[in-house]
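Practice problem: predict the structure.
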Amino acid sequence: MIRTLLLAALIAAPAAAQTLPVAEADFVTRDFRFGDGQLLPELKQHYRTLGTPQRDAAGNITNAVMIGHGTGGTGAQFLTPQFTRLFAPGAPLDLATHFIILPDAIGHGGSSKPSDGLRMAFPAYDYADMVRAQGLLLDNLKVKRLRLLMGTSMGCMMGFQFGTDLPGRAAAIMPLACNVIPLAGRNRMWRAMAIQAIKADPDWNGGNYSKQPLNGLRVGVALQAMASSAPVRMQADWPTRDLADAAAERAMAQGLAGSADANDRIYQLEASRNYNPAPNLARITMPITWVNSADDFINPPGVGDATAHVKAMPQGRFVLIPETAETRGHSTHTWSVFWEGELKALLARTL
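Answer:
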């Protein structure tokens, strides 16, 4: 009971927001060729950094931590108190000793994306393209080997993609909230429904719209709200029909206000189409701690057989966070209070 009350207090009152020294920049790659052969003359990657880099005699950064965001997000999603508590003095990713890199993946935020002008003629990127581009970003920053690679949701999947495609470039990996199997079944169905809803909206006009196809986007917002839901917590928060209806109205309004450009959203949801690191997991030989949540609608415990797949990784550890009225469903990945101890342990067992 004492532990539960303490955890509830930490969640209800996360560490006070810090004034973080965030720097932002863009890195442009010329003539970036995608896996399907398409070429983009200029690929821009926007990124944020925090902390001070430490360098070896050759000038390479030795204390870099890269954190990958979820589908439709940006690196800025980690600048919230429930996550930045990790950056505080004495915390696992103390900015005095770690250099944090928060990239916007291809198709997201300030990085190159369909809404920059190409619309549906933008190259059809996938996770392999996104990871390869991030490898070039690390080259530009003079990071030969990350101290740690983290990622949530899509960033979790990109972490496995990174580990199999660029196996020597991270000393440790901590993927949060994903599976290692192809996106099929319900996970693909809700994405396909969201895409189909946009394309069925007459305002979409084959991607050449003069106004956002809001009716189509509204369906996707509703689907993602449910996919990211936490039923036990939500029942506790909104125990009556009126409270639940009001919460649904707020969620729709907030979701539409923050919704991506419709073409960008189609590309973001389609980027997962080739994902399947399972056959190559043995390439991930560095320490890895993979964390999922029991109340994750997108990656439920009965799908993907994580306990079997983790055995393919020589230094793999899998952790399943139990469902409570305090967990956040899929979004538990951003509330570090639930898995901070596992992060400390991973860093401790990593050279």
